Amino acid sequence: MANQRVPRIFNPARRRAIRQRAARLSAADPAASYILADMVEDTQERLAFMRLAPTRSLVIGDRHGEMAAHLSAEGSEVVSVDPADFDEEAPLPWGAFDFIASLATLDTVNDLPGALIHLRNGLAPGGVLIASLLGAGSAPALRSAMLAADADRPAARMHPMVDRRGGADLLQRSGFARQVVDSRSLDVRYGSMDALVNDMRAQGMTNALVSSPPPLGRAARETARQHFISQADDAGRVTETFEILTLTGWKS
Predict the structure, then answer these.
(1) Host domain of residue 41
(2) Sheet holding 97-103, edge to edge
(3) Contact by Cβ (8 Å): 171, 202
(4) pTM beyond cutoff 0.90
(5) Which of 49, 59, 107, 225 is 20 to 30 A away from residue 38, measured at CA?
């Protein structure tokens, strides 16, 4: 029987360039990293709630080093890797870590089940993975604006994303002994679509798809801006929602 090939949805080179750009932009304006900051804070709270004090941790995507610093202060030996240089679809040393944190990176890997299997294999028995990623309910205001701009010929401008049920299925398929999947919404208010897009660039959330859509022309771009602001409240601000999906898995 022929080997099943993993579909190529995301372009690894484009993904790497997007993350390198995000590192530069967020260094100039750390406030633009609000999604990553939320994920870091939430992961720290989960560790405290579980009373988990890992001795050796792997942290993926900790752009500003806050998660690694927290774990180090708690006595953990930390390996921190930059997702621009780290291949999540490659095997990890077997059983090397008792805790792995993945922050805002798994939503753009081609082989997500395979990546989760590698993360599970990298855990020691009893080890825990906490993976935070953008979920399927993210950026509805921007999605609506893009559809309006493309009119009757919509292009693939936004990434496909995982929902809670899909996340639970992925953890089960990946062989985790126990799984918990939950999501929460982070609402951010914007006065323009351009401000939102700039923040998304600074957070590495722009298009990394293999099939690059045609750029919006001037008229279509203006249509998108007008449609976006038409969703504004009385104060002239549009509330954009980011769904943060958290996958927690335990290795037996």
Answers:
(1) 12-139+160-188+241-250
(2) 77-81, 56-60, 97-103, 123-134, 238-250, 178-190
(3) no
(4) yes
(5) 225
In a domain, 215, yes or no: no
Q: Which CATH number belongs to the domain containing residue 40 in this structure? A: 3.40.50.150
Q: Please give the Cα distance from 192 to 247 (Å, whole number).
A: 32
| Residue keyed to tokens 């953008």 | 134
Place of tokens 């484009």: 14
Give yes or no for a contact between 90 and 221, defined as CB atoms under 8 angstroms apart. Answer: no
Instruction: Please check whether residue 220 lies inside any domain of the structure.
Output: no
Is the residue at 210 inside a domain? no
Whole-number Å distance between alpha carbons of 190 and 184 = 20
Q: Name 58's bridge partners.
A: 79, 100
Give the whole-angstrom CA distance, residue 8 versus residue 148.
Answer: 27
Of 21-30, 141-150, 225-234, 241-250, where does mean pLDDT reach its minimum?
21-30
In tens, the pLDDT along 144-192 reads 999 999 987 888 888 889 999 999 999 999 999 999 999 999 999 999 9
C-alpha distance across the termini of the chain, in Å: 32
